[in-house]
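Deliverable D5.2: sample structural annotation.
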Amino acid sequence: LSVAVTSTDPALLPPAGLTRTPAGLSIAPAPGRWGAAAVRVTATDPGGLTGEAVIRVTVPAPAFALAPIPD
């Protein structure tokens, strides 16, 4: 079985952040990035039959407040 994993936004979800694990799939966004993208998982068997799933991923913006800058 061959499995391919791709993202619709490689700047947000780079190929290095999409890894297969024994438990399934690990998705890690690029540092300092947020937004939404789709991750497509395609499995192909030796006979050429394929199955596909699309997962919508949202990476929230960091929740922080900037302190006022003193004069």
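Annotation notes: The chain is about 0% helix and 50% strand. The mean pLDDT is 92.
The annotation will be released with the project's public dataset once the embargo ends.
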